Amino acid sequence: MLTPDVPKLSCQHLNLYFGTKQILKDVSIEFPKNQVVSLIGPSGCGKSTLLRSFNRMHDLVADARIEGKLFLDNQDLYAPQVSVTQIRKRVGMVFQKPNPLPKSIYDNLAYALRIHQFPKNEIPQLIENALRESYLWEEVKNELKKPAVKLSGGQQQRLCIARTVVLRPEVILMDEPCSALDPISTNKIEELILKLKEHYTIVIVTHNMQQAQRISDKVAFMYLGELIEYDTCEHIFHRPQKELTKNYISGHFG
């Protein structure tokens, strides 16, 4: 159980480099439990790089180098004894474009459960629960053996969310999950995010300022690898303290 002053996810003095190029510059931020935090800022400012730091995605990049501390609860995410597999189970990721596996709807979820050695007899119910939680069950319950790639774009993204929540993570990271979707599908994802925060901490990268206002409890504005301002959604959009923030959200940036 977290005490009120312990953030669910956080980093302290995070600097990240790809080769000799510094992408993140002394970023310190805390994400509260069961809230939605949106990361906003112009393309290339480091939002996605920050997001991916929290589930060790940069481990896959040969010339990536990280300085600083990142924590899930009080656990150092980059401590030598930490299991990356367990971190990625606890910190799920939903990507910009839907990326269903070339398998059936059912096996997209069952695959992850088998990898993590969930009891075989529990798998069908866990899959149903995840599809219900992702607002997809009623649409697919009679065609679970259908190839996942046959679903619409919006359905595929909700399937990817279901594939994440089926493992019961504590945090869900979302990297522009609606950027490839139409307005109706986007609305469904936003409704889903607001429901999911009852059980998960959610950090989302978005370029859609209206979306950030609709779904966020807090908003972080980044620019050129730095965290410029971090506050409640109300303060960022209506009473920003920094001129850079004000210019960005008003569309007068640059």
UniProtKB/TrEMBL annotation:
GO terms for biological process: phosphate ion transmembrane transport. Keywords: ATP-binding, Nucleotide-binding, Phosphate transport, Transport. It comes from the Bacteria. GO terms for molecular function: ATP binding; ATP hydrolysis activity; phosphate transmembrane transporter activity. It holds the Pfam family ABC_tran. GO terms for cellular component: membrane. This is Phosphate transport system ATP-binding protein. It comes from Flexibacter flexilis DSM 6793.
